[in-house]
Amino acid sequence: MQKTPMTAAGLQRLEEELRRLKSDERPAVIRAIAEAREHGDLSENAEYHAARERQSFIEGRLQELEEIISTAEVIDPSTLSGDQVKFGARVKLIDEETEKESSYQIVGMHEADIKQGLLSISSPLAKALIGKSLGDSVSVPAPGGDRTYEIVSVIYS
Prior knowledge:
The protein has 157 residues and is an alpha/beta fold. It has two domains: 4-74, Orthogonal Bundle (Helix Hairpins), CATH 1.10.287.180; 77-155, Roll (Chitinase A, domain 3), CATH 3.10.50. The protein contains three helices and seven strands. The chain has a five-stranded mixed sheet. A two-stranded parallel sheet has the order 1-2. The longest helix is centred in the N-terminal third of the chain and has 31 residues, at 8-38. The radius of gyration is 21 Å and the shape is elongated.
């Protein structure tokens, strides 16, 4: 079984979601199905069908989370160092065309959230950054044409 790299914080978020689904969401949807059954004819009962659809989603997500968690390999970025970009690095970049600065942490694909600056290791930008060092320029294919970034900071924390 192939291991999936992940930070401890990312694993904790997934475990919390799993716990919430098992202890809160699953029992609530079971109650909703029971209530909807009491209303009679199930063939025309929209509440029943909505609750069953929600139950199906929850069960699918539970299976997905259990699989992700079972294959997770936690990597602690604070044990890494250097100026070369690796998994877990917080990287500050400057767009060489617009001079706009951006900052990302390279994380596992199941914990990525670009709005929070968490960049999936499987993204084109992360793939271009891995193995590069402080001061290097990287070119990344983008819909509007290739973008070039300079690495101005690499931090492991």
